[in-house]
Amino acid sequence: MSFSPSLQLPLDLGFPDELHFEGYYRSAGNAEALEAVSTLARAEAPVHSVYLWGPSGTGKTHLLVAAARQMADAGWSPYIDMVDFAAQMPAGEPSQWLAGLERASLVCFDRMESIAGDIRWEEAVFHCFNRLQAQGGRLLMAGRQAPAATSWALADWASRASWGLVLGLPPLQDQDRLGILQLRAAARGLELPGEVGEFLLQRYPRDIRQLNRILDELDRAALAAARRLTIPFVRSVLRF
């Protein structure tokens, strides 16, 4: 069985709206990656593949989803989380489920570290890469480690994974977390004063996903109460 648009795990329409390029917080540490991915998504890049790597929470998925969304206007452009994809596919060889992806304008493979060491999946991605390149398509990948530092089982894929542009994303600092929260608040029409953001950072774990969930809760509460975000109001909503 071959992979087809009807069988794909498509760009998940359940992703938050802010996962586009305009909603990505730009910093000195990620500016090069943002430019490289947005250029790739405009089909203007001199390379045909980009591999992003860095720890969780650094915005890799955001960039992959943003690129897939932008390229979707020009044609089929699937975003595929390798963990979810492998878990949801029925029994069979991975090569079956990646066949046909060369018809896409751009393919985005996320969480590549999950297939490291599985030679069947590495072979499938390796051949998909070759077919996609032959058709003039582009490949955008992300993983937690640089491809050269990942324990691949297939030597050919270990070499091919580093063929294009490889860019690392640095861990978030508190000023980045505050900037991300303020950018996402502004997208909701909500002002997050710096002192309120710092108040949250002092009292909650620095995990950006959890902080975004807290921002969602505050947004709903502020809308319902017709209130601005102040430290007393935040205290009352979050009960501390």
From TrEMBL:
<dbReference type="InterPro" id="IPR055199">
    <property type="entry name" value="Hda_lid"/>
</dbReference>
<feature type="domain" description="Chromosomal replication initiator protein DnaA ATPAse">
    <location>
        <begin position="20"/>
        <end position="166"/>
    </location>
</feature>
<dbReference type="InterPro" id="IPR017788">
    <property type="entry name" value="Hda"/>
</dbReference>
<dbReference type="Pfam" id="PF00308">
    <property type="entry name" value="Bac_DnaA"/>
</dbReference>
<protein>
    <submittedName>
        <fullName>DnaA regulatory inactivator Hda</fullName>
    </submittedName>
</protein>
<dbReference type="InterPro" id="IPR013317">
    <property type="entry name" value="DnaA_dom"/>
</dbReference>
<dbReference type="Pfam" id="PF22688">
    <property type="entry name" value="Hda_lid"/>
</dbReference>
<dbReference type="InterPro" id="IPR027417">
    <property type="entry name" value="P-loop_NTPase"/>
</dbReference>
<feature type="domain" description="Hda lid">
    <location>
        <begin position="174"/>
        <end position="238"/>
    </location>
</feature>
